[in-house]
Each structure stands twice: as structure tokens, then as C-alpha cells.
Amino acid sequence: MAVPAACVRRHAVTTRASPHRYAIFCRVVDNHGDAGVCWRLARLLAGEHGLDVTLWIDQRAALAAFVPAAATAHEADGIALRDWTDAEARYDDAPDVVIEGFGCGLPAPVLDALERRRHVWLVLEYLSAEPWVDGFHGLPSPHPSRPLTRWFFFPGFTAATGGLLRERAVAAPTASLAAGQGLDVTVFTYDNAALGGLLDAWRQSASPVRVAVPEGVASATLAGWLGEAPGRAGREHQRDALALRIVEWTDQRGFDARLAASGFNLVRGEDSFVRAQWAARPFLWHIYRQDGDAHRVKLDAFLARYLAGATPVVADAVRALWAAFEREDPPATAAAWPAFAAAHGALDAHARDWAATLARLPEQAACLVEFAKKRYN
Ligand code: TRH
Questions:
Q1: How, if at all, do strands 75-76 and 79-83 pair?
Q2: Ligand 1, atom 12, residue with closest C-alpha
Q3: 125 included as an active-site residue
Q4: Binning pLDDT at 50, 70 and 90, where does residue 1 land?
Q5: pTM of the model
Q6: N or C: which end of the chain has fewer CB within 10 A?
Q7: Pairing status of strand 236-239 against strand 264-268
Q8: For residues 241-255, b (16+ Cβ closer than 10 Å) or e, as one string?
Q9: Whose Cα sits closest to atom 24 in ligand 1?
Q10: Strand order in 242-247's β-sheet?
Q11: Cβ-Cβ contacts under 8 Å for 45 (sequence gap 6 or more)
Q12: Is the pLDDT of residue 6 over 50?
């Protein structure tokens, strides 16, 4: 894979050999994003860079939701799978590159092993569009009590960051499939009363709206709106123009394909948020809430980039809908929908332009491999 010049320039340190054995450490905070991002990265490193990758994870169930083999197997998709607790007890592996997922820490036996051998230790940070990320990507930090150095690796939306995860197979965006025959929507949000506002709007739509919701997603909100439990995969709920279908979870490839086949996507967290952008459809990001409303800063930083080149019609439609949803305001969300729907063609074109812009930025796995090569000593 071609490595963007920006990746290489920033880390110009003498190369001595190519690190080949990668270990990714992942602790699940909640939901599926920690496992999802680590798995996406692992698949790219193994599948597209031919590297030897082991994923150490503390909660296999979070991964097994979309990689069923991960519940018990020692290997899936060419990636070795190991339990975090095993590394706490004893660590005999000898990776060249250790990736600490989202600052989750490393078990003491791993730190002991790193002290004994040549390696690169990267801390994979959360994705943010905030401008300060440019200055922090790639900085070293000495360990407070051991002779070890960690390097901070920030994904991001500029050439000065580590970029975004993107498989070679991501298809060039095509025009939306929705025009004319109604709208297909995928909903992958957290619980949020504002989702009820959207369902109200879709129910009253002049043309059919077909909504797919993976089983268990936003189930309290859906139960409140439907007046009954949403049920298991296969269950369908018809409410006037709205056909709401509960669907099975798929693997990440299937999930990506589902987003690409929808005319509008509601996503959340980090990995699905990125995938909605590669799907190049109009979308709404239900950002993960943080204490002190820190998430609003992140949301605004993303919107500032996403809407920088947008027409007023697109910018107003996105801002009104996203703001109402973030405030968890059902009537305002329902009220924002008609303008969003009316701008669908322009929103779709904007989403394709945005995906094309992002595709010219560094690809995260390629950038990380280059970064590790330069720091391997
Ligand atoms: O599940 P998320 O909300 O995860 C997170 C965590 O809450 C985390 O603590 C937080 O810090 C982070 O968000 C910001 O959302 P995310 O990141 O979109 O991860 C979901 C993963 O599930 C993603 O890799 C896609 C995958 N998935 C499938 O592969 N198939 C499916 O059918 C579905 C529904 C999801």
C-alpha cells in the first residue's frame, strides 16, 4: 500500500529492520467499539500488510458479537486471539510492536518482556477531529518508572495525524440507492429519545421508509416508541409508512456493506462513525456521551471539518438534525427531518465529496506500520 508522504516525513528516523510481530492489547470499556477498532486494525495489519498479529483482549464477548469464533477460538481471520488474564499471569511472547489500545495499560509481565527486547510500544488513541491532535500525534512519553518509551499514535482527519482505517476494498462511493423508491435506513445508535422523533417523522412520510436495527440496539427507546419489545432478529414492525426490521449482527464486512446499501445511516462510537463516512451516505453521528459534555467539543470539531465546504442547504440540514438529536429532543428532531429529507440529493453528493477528500489522507494501518518501522530500535 502506498504510504502518504506526510506519514513518512514526520518520523524520519533511521530504519534498521522491519518489525513483523505485532501484539494489540485491548480492554473493553463498554459496548463494542474498543474491540471493533482493535479488530479492524488487526485485520488490516494481518490481511493487507502480511504481519503476524496477536490480539490480547479482556472480554471476548464484545468481539464475539461480530466475530462469533472469537468466543472460544485461538484464531480468527488470520489473527491469534489470547485472553488478557493469561498475559497477566505470564508473558512469553516476543512481539516487535506492541499496540496499547486506547491507553488501556499493559500487564506487568508484558512490560518486563519489553525491557528485555528490542521493540516499539505505541499507544493507540481515540479518534478526534480537534485541532490539537495534529501536535500530539507521534510524540514520545517516557514510562514514569521503567526504562521504556511509549509513542502516542492519534488517528485523525488531517495529514499531520495517523489517518483513518480503510481497507483497500472500500468501494468508490456511488450515488444513493434511495432516490425514488423510498428510503433505506440503518440505525446503530445508543438509546436516545430523539430516535422516537425520527420514527414519528418516518411513519408520516409520503414514501416508504425501511429501517434496519441490529438486534439489541437502542432497544429501550424502541420498546417505548413501539409499545412492545422490538424482539429478535427477523421481527418486523409496520407503522404506517415505516417498516422497522430487527436484523442479525454481521461481521465488519457485512456491517460496512449494510451502511453502503442504506440511503441514511445513524451510527455511534468510533468505528461505525468512520464506516459511515466511507459508506458515503448522509449520516447522523450519535456521539458517545462524556462527563462535562466533553463530547460536544468533539462533535463541533468534526462538524467544522465535515461542513467546511458544504452549501448552506447541506450545512443547515445537518446542523439542525444533529443538534436536536444530541439534545435528545424528539419534537425538534422530527421537525428537522423534512429539511434533511428534502436536501437528500445534495447531502448524498456532499457525503461522496467528503469520502473522496478523506481517501486522499493517510491510511491509518499503513501509517502505523511506517511509524513502527522508523521507531524500531
Ligand atoms: O459499540 P460502540 O458504541 O463502541 C464504543 C465504546 O462505547 C467505547 O467505550 C467508546 O469509547 C467508543 O464507542 C467511542 O461503537 P463503535 O465504535 O461503532 O463499534 C461498534 C463495532 O461493532 C464496529 O466495529 C462495527 C461492529 N459491528 C459489526 O461488525 N457488525 C454489526 O452488525 C454491528 C451492529 C456492529
A1: antiparallel
A2: 269
A3: no
A4: very low
A5: 0.95
A6: C
A7: unpaired
A8: bbbbebbebebbeeb
A9: 36
A10: 236-239, 242-247, 209-214, 183-187, 264-268, 283-286
A11: 22, 51, 53, 365, 368, 369
A12: no
Rg of the chain taking only CA atoms, in angstroms: 21
From the CB of 252, is ligand 1 less than 6 Å away?
A: yes
If you measure from the C-alpha of residue 190 to the centroid of ligand 1, how many angstroms do you get, rounded to a whole number? 10
For the question of residue 75 being annotated catalytic, the response is no
Name the catalytic one among 200, 270, 326, 363: 270
Task: Tell me phi and psi for residue 4, to 5 degrees.
Answer: -60, 140
Secondary structure in 3-state letters for the chain: CCCCHHHHHHCCCCCCCCCCEEEEEECCCCCCHHHHHHHHHHHHHHHHHCCEEEEEECCHHHHHCCCHHHHCCCEECCEEEEEHHHHHHCCCCCCCEEEEECCCCCCHHHHHHHHHCCCEEEEECCCCCCCCHHHHCCCEEECCCCCCEEEEECCCCCCCCCCECCCCCCCCCCCCCCCCCCEEEEECCCCCCHHHHHHHHHHCCCCCEEEEEECCCCHHHHHHHHCCCCCCCCCEEEECCEEEEEECCCCHHHHHHHHHCCCEEEEECCHHHHHHHHHCCCEEEECCCCHHHHHHHHHHHHHHHHCCCCCHHHHHHHHHHHHHHHCCCHHHHHHHHHHHHHCHHHHHHHHHHHHHHHHCCCEHHHHHHHHHHHHCC
Q: What percentage of the chain has pLDDT greater than the value 90?
A: 91
Among 207, 212, 198, 196, CA closest to 241: 207
- Give the whole-angstrom CA distance, residue 57 versus residue 25: 6
Domains of the chain: 5-164+362-375 (3.40.50), 183-359 (3.40.50)
The string of pLDDT tens digits covering residues 298-309 is 999 999 999 999
